[in-house]
Write a structure and sequence with these properties.
The protein is mostly helical and 935 residues long. 59% of the residues lie in helices and 4% in strands. The chain contains 42 helices and eight strands. A five-stranded parallel β-sheet has the order 2-3-4-1-5, with helices on both faces. Strands 6-8-7 form a three-stranded antiparallel β-sheet. Strand 3, helix 10 and strand 4 form a beta-alpha-beta unit. Helix 8 packs across helix 9 and helix 28 packs antiparallel against helix 29. The longest helix is centred in the C-terminal third of the chain and has 28 residues. The N terminus is likely disordered.
């Protein structure tokens, strides 16, 4: 061709041949390079006058659209020149590139820009003599090292020498491998290492030692070379650090992946590094592959499932020409083998993900291999205490403690765990300080972050302290999902799986039971956080109990977890597990106490979803079992809660009867195993709790003296027993009596004290309801700004924790205060949303209050007839419930009725009032939520 030049190097001639094969001129090729090259630069590279930098070579290869074989040939030609010492003014043997040069022909890196810049800075900016890139198999250490080597190669007078140590098993052969790469031969009886050190002493060179993990005992060789060569820098890739004094370790992290369950727009998802890599590699095999709204969820889940490991992602991409992302994801959940084999031009140990992990697994001792297998029973992650209880098995999977009274050997296991962390087969992370709980902050992985003191006396089951609260930092261990899949295969192939799974389930049963006993106490929030962090393991234990026919264990665990499920909003899941075990074969033979607890939990969760019929039926099944066991306190607790359900639905006669029965049962009961409340922060089967329930019913029936007496007796009961949680709730009740009577000074006195105690105890319900009542008190004295501030805090608190009733009350009070200020346009949406939150689940006295307040807004905005309808409906409903308007609201309700009467006239008002009294609650609520708007 016209622009053909003579005299080029092997690299230049090769690039020119590929250009001509594609019918491109030098001008056309220069124009195709994205960064922009001049025609002179292309011409000089082809003639050998300019030697391209690595990134320039990559741009030329991309512009030429070279295939894998062509890229390998170009990279090999470039590597041969870069590693040749002929550029030095000293004579010496040339290093061999041979088969190792092919390792430089890697596809472009994706998502590693920051890592490349950081490693380059460590090599150049801080002039590190020894830098080790560590990370799990398949994370891309070699690719990153080669990219960095290409980037910095111009800074080394004698180039870069690549040494692949993967084929070695004998550490003594490391000097020979380095010598071979350098082109050196032995000199008689002189030690080869001395020859290598002497050769490198005056050279300025980067020595890249790849795959050092299986020859770690040769670290001394690296140390000696590093000391001898003043101009030598060594970069090592290894799954474990070399542990040398002058070593700088750089952990290579997996690519950033989508968060499981997170929904992102396609454009945003495509920028996530793990997804970008999958798409780029898939297109290399199937040019029409694209990220679309249809396949985006599966692609996102696939990358999350593969932990962002580049090798696993590339193996997955190789499957996409013949399998959709959704189908591959489904196959992957069943078997690690679904990833198949990778390219033939990579080492055999990296052609499948299984081979990569097996490579590291094979380097472990038999004891460490056994621990690695057993850790696979944990779903997600585990604590040090959990690993000890579950994984310390004897030979052939037998319980190591079965024939010994010695305690578990924490320090011994800690050493083994450390070995797995160093082998990059296990991740370690720690969380914040005492009481923070494992969800308190982001995990910050730091190997070696535990102490022998923590190991010797771990918190957790049996200590009475939440695992996250008993140490300066909670330590967690985690296997990447791809690693865990391999470990599970090894576990199932061994004889250890049944015993490991049994111990796993027993440990988490113990954890759930101890947490259940602590709920309502000073460590409640820490325990709830622990259970949330361990939810995946709890689910795994429940699943094993069901699959293996262990109905009794499943009933015990689900019965211990129902309060957690209620408090954290896992209502549907909790009901499903409880129903599964209550209906399982053998459940009827479970101990009466276990079955009664499960029935009670199922009833509470059904009530939480407003399934009142199911709740009543389940409570009805639990009561005879508690009576049979003589657990009077449990009977009292169930009865008290049934009183609360009746009150919520406006059945005050039934509520009063049940509350009085509950008090009679609880009075003098010696049964301390009372039911923990899912609605409040104290046991509902105690005498004090029964009195507070009775006070609540009396209050809403307008029997203020009786309510006052009940709450005062409850306060005395709790104070005598040192129960500050119960005392705080009873004081709140006294404050609410004062509120409904219109006595705002006493309201603020009682509720301020309750708020202070609730905050000290970190009790959500007491804190929120005290804020609500104090807001009403502030409004009574005309301080609307303070009322707004208090309600805002309560609404945020209740909303964050999903407390529906608290949200409804805060919204209704907010609307009421806006109406008090004359802001009717702002009041209506708040009142309507509060009404939606409280209908039909209740409490129904709140619904009646909402109707009255909407009627107030309607008449102020010119909708007098609708106001009369709602006022009549609310009054009739209160009469049927037996829950009159509290005195502090009399003036508001009376003024609303008077305004509607004046606007409609006597006859018009009488007609609307009568019609309203005949409305059903459902129709009244629909009317209040209708399309009316302030006029």
């Amino acid at each position: 061709m016209a622009d053909r030049e003579e005299g080029g190097t092997d690299l230049g001639n090769l690039l020119r041949a590929y250009r001509e094969r594609r019918g491109l001129t030098q001008q056309a090729l220069a124009a195709k390079v994205q960064a922009g090259l001049t025609v002179d630069t292309v011409r000089n590279i082809e003639r050998g006058r300019n030697w391209p930098r690595w990134h320039t070579l990559k741009q030329l290869s991309a512009a030429l659209e070279l295939g894998p074989t062509e890229r390998e040939a170009v990279a090999a030609a470039w590597a041969q020149r870069r590693s040749s010492p002929s550029r030095s003014d000293r004579a010496g043997p040339s290093p061999r590139t041979g088969p190792t040069a092919g390792n430089w022909a890697l596809p472009p890196l994706v998502g590693r820009e920051q890592a490349v810049a950081e490693v380059v800075r460590l090599l150049r900016g801080e002039a590190r003599r020894l830098l080790t890139l560590t990370g799990p198999g398949g994370v891309g250490k070699t690719s990153l090292a080669l990219e960095v080597a290409g980037t910095v190669s111009e800074h080394y007078r004698d180039g870069v020498v690549f040494v692949d140590l993967a084929p070695l098993r004998d550490p003594g052969l490391v000097p020979a491998s380095i010598a071979e790469a350098l082109g050196l031969t032995e000199e008689g009886s002189r030690p080869l290492l001395a020859t290598v050190a002497d050769h490198l002493r005056d050279r300025q060179l980067l020595l890249l030692l790849d795959n050092f993990e299986q020859v770690l005992t040769a670290a001394g060789t690296v140390a000696e070379l590093s000391r001898e060569g003043a101009g030598l820098q060594i970069m090592v890739t290894s799954r474990m650090a070399l542990r040398l004094r002058d070593e700088q370790v750089y952990p290579v992290a997996p690519l950033a992946s989508p968060v499981a369950g997170q929904v992102l727009e396609v454009e945003v998802l495509g920028q996530v590094p793990a997804v970008a890599l999958l798409v780029e590699r898939a297109r290399a095999r199937r040019p029409d592959f694209a990220l679309t709204p249809a396949n985006a969820p599966a692609v996102s889940s696939l990358c999350a499932r593969l932990d962002g490991l580049p090798l696993a992602i590339e193996l997955a991409a190789a499957r996409l020409p013949v399998m959709t992302p959704a189908a591959l994801l489904a196959r992957l959940k069943a078997s690690l083998g679904a990833l198949g084999e990778g390219p033939r031009d990579v080492p055999a140990r990296q052609r499948t993900m299984r081979d990569v992990i097996a490579w590291s697994y094979g380097l472990l001792s038999e004891e460490d291999q056994a621990l690695f297998r057993r850790l696979a029973v944990f779903a997600g992650r585990c604590t040090l205490a959990a690993a000890t209880e579950v994984c310390e098995l004897g030979p052939s999977g037998r319980d190591a403690q079965a024939t010994s009274t010695a305690p578990p050997s924490f320090p011994g296991l800690l050493t083994q765990l450390s070995a797995l962390v160093e082998a990059q087969l296990l991740e370690v992370a720690e969380t914040g300080g005492p009481g923070a709980g494992p969800l308190a902050g982001e995990l910050d992985g730091r190997p070696g972050g535990w102490t022998d003191e923590e190991a010797a006396s771990p918190p957790g089951p049996g200590t009475g302290v939440a695992p996250a609260a008993g140490a300066e930092a909670a330590i967690w261990f985690r296997q990447l999902e791809t690693v865990r899949a391999y470990a599970l295969e090894e576990l199932e192939a061994s004889l250890e799986a049944p015993e490991a799974r049994r111990r796993h389930a027993r440990y988490y049963l113990s954890l759930a039971q101890e947490a259940n006993q602590a709920l309502g106490g000073p460590h409640e929030q820490s325990w709830l956080a622990v259970l949330e962090a361990e939810h995946a393991n709890l689910r795994a234990a429940l699943g094993w109990a069901h699959d293996s026919g262990q109905a009794g264990l499943g009933l015990e665990m689900s019965g211990a977890l129902w309060v957690f499920w209620q408090r954290r909003g896992h209502l549907s899941e909790g009901r499903r597990w409880l129903a599964l075990f209550l209906g399982a074969p053998g459940a009827e033979q479970a101990p009466a106490g276990v079955r009664a607890e499960a029935l009670t939990g199922a009833a509470w969760l059904a009530d939480g979803q407003d399934d009142f019929g199911a709740a009543e039926a389940l409570f009805g099944q639990a009561l005879p079992l508690y009576e049979q066991l003589g657990q009077r306190g449990r009977v009292a607790g169930v009865t008290a809660h049934r009183a609360r359900m009746a009150r919520d639905r406006g059945r005050y006669d039934d509520a009063l009867r049940l509350a009085e029965t509950g008090l009679e049962l609880a009075r003098g009961s010696e049964d301390r195993a009372v039911v923990p409340s899912a609605s409040f922060d104290f046991p509902v089967g105690s005498e004090g709790a029964a009195r507070t329930y009775l006070g609540l019913v009396m209050l809403e029936r307008g029997q203020f003296d009786e309510a006052q007496a009940a709450y005062e007796e409850a306060v005395e009961h709790y104070r005598a027993r040192g129960d500050r949680s119960g005392e705080a709730y009873a004081l709140l009740g006294l404050g609410n009596v004062s509120r409904d009577k219109g006595d705002h000074p006493m309201l603020e006195a009682y509720c301020s004290q309750s708020l202070k105690m609730s905050r000290e105890l970190r009790h959500l319900w007491g804190t929120g309801y005290s804020l609500n009542s104090l807001a009403v008190g502030a409004a009574m004295r005309g301080d609307f700004d303070r009322a707004h501030e208090l309600l805002g805090e309560a609404l945020e608190l209740f909303g964050r924790h999903g407390v529906r009733v608290g949200v409804a009350e805060a919204l209704l009070f907010s609307g009421q205060i806006e109406a008090d200020r004359g802001h009717t346009a702002a009041a209506l949406p708040l009142l309507q949303e509060g009404l939606r939150q409280s209908w039909p689940a209740g409490p129904h006295y709140l619904v009646a209050t909402a109707l009255e307040e909407v009627a107030r807004v309607m008449v102020a905005e010119g909708h007098a007839r609708e106001s009369a309808l709602l006022s009549g409906a609310a009054l009739a409903w209160r009469g049927r419930m037996g829950a009159p308007v509290p005195p502090y609201r009399w003036a508001t309700v009376d003024s609303t009725v008077a305004a509607a009467q004046q606007a409609l006239g006597e006859d018009g008002f009488a007609t609307a009032w009568k019609e309203g009294k005949g409305l059903t609650p459902e129709h009244a609520v629909l009317l209040a939520l209708g399309p009316m708007a302030p006029g």
